[in-house]
Amino acid sequence: MAALDTTRTTTGSFGLVGRIGVTFASVVNAVVEWNDARVTRNVLNGLTDRELDDIGMCRGDIDLVAEGRL
Q: How much is the pTM?
C-alpha cells in the first residue's frame, strides 16, 4: 500500500507555484487512492465465496471495502 503525506502545510508558497504544488499533490493522492482501491478489489475478487465468508464478507461488500466505506 502506498502512502502519501498530505498533512504538511506550505510555508509562504501561496502564489502560482504553491497552487500548482497543491494541485499536483491532489492529483497524485487521487491516483494513489484509485490504485489502492483497484488492487484491493482485484485481490478480494480473486477469493472464493468460502474464503470471503471466512473473513465475514460477501461479494456485495467488495466495492464498499475497496472504497473504504465499510
A: 0.68
Residue 60, Cβ density class (10 Å: 0-12 exposed, 13-18 middle, ≥19 buried): exposed
CA–CA separation, 38 and 19 (whole Å): 29
Question: Given the C-alpha cell 500500500, which residue does it identify?
Answer: 1
User: What whole-number distance in Å separates Cα of residue 57 and Cα of residue 70?
Assistant: 10
The 10s digit of each residue's pLDDT in 7-41 is 666 555 578 888 898 999 999 999 999 999 999 99
On whether the CB atoms of residues 62 and 42 are closer than 8 A, the answer is: no
Q: Which residue bears the cell 503525506?
A: 5
